[in-house]
């Protein structure tokens, strides 16, 4: 990770945890099934790398409370929110880089990465994941991706970010993780997609936008004009008081060690 990526979400932990979407049940069940296949009759140990505020970590814990959960992230602000939300101290939290994790060899049955793989030096991370996984363990990369095709509103929103953040592209997460896993030596790589929709008030959509490091950079570069233009786009595409409906496809990439 670069210094920029280490601090990209500093100060955003509260709004991130409140505004970001959760993961759909069927995608979570897919991950829990892989954990069950990897752990057999053992307790099971899962590591969530780039865990952020622990959104995925907590959701999976609810479905597999018998297993041991660990979350790690490079950003201490995000981890502070993760610890705050983990009132029962059911999860072990660590600050560390994805490419150099402070755990023993063969320590985990499953490793997850949610909304974070694009920040990693992935060849180094894949090596580290193979070190940490037991033989037969699984690596899972999961992403909530907004569906842009066929939505004039989403096209306008993405264009607005690209206009005010020259480093941003709407295709910034279009990586073939499954093929990367094959090249790194993982077996039985699979991709599954789970479509769903999220309904937000217009003010909630603005809060979700503000939870993005890419949008924060656009707000700063535009000296605040971004938010005014976003409100105009909302008014152009949605009636006053009308909820905003966002179509998602949650992708789950998996590979076996």
C-alpha-based Rg, rounded: 18 Å
Residue-averaged pLDDT:
95
- Share of helix, binned: 40-55%
| DSSP summary: helix tally | 11
**Count of DSSP strands:** 7
Give an overview of the whole structure.
It is a single chain. This protein is an alpha/beta fold. It contains eleven helices and seven strands. Helices cover 42% and strands 25% of the residues. It has a seven-stranded mixed sheet with strand order 3-2-1-4-5-7-6. The protein has helices at 3-6, 13-19, 25-39, 55-63, 76-85, 122-132, 152-164, 177-184, 202-210, 213-221, 225-237; strands spanning 45-49, 68-73, 91-95, 108-114, 133-146, 187-200, 244-256. Helix 2 (13-19) packs across helix 9.
Care to give the gist of this entry?
Helices cover 42% and strands 25% of the residues.
What characteristics describe this protein?
single chain, 257 residues, alpha/beta, seven-stranded mixed β-sheet, 42% helix
Strand-helix topology:
Blueprint: H1 3-6, H2 13-19, H3 25-39, E1 45-49, H4 55-63, E2 68-73, H5 76-85, E3 91-95, E4 108-114, H6 122-132, E5 133-146, H7 152-164, H8 177-184, E6 187-200, H9 202-210, H10 213-221, H11 225-237, E7 244-256
Parallel strand pairs: 1-2, 1-4, 2-3, 4-5
Antiparallel strand pairs: 5-7, 6-7
Helix pairs in contact: 2-9, 7-10, 7-11
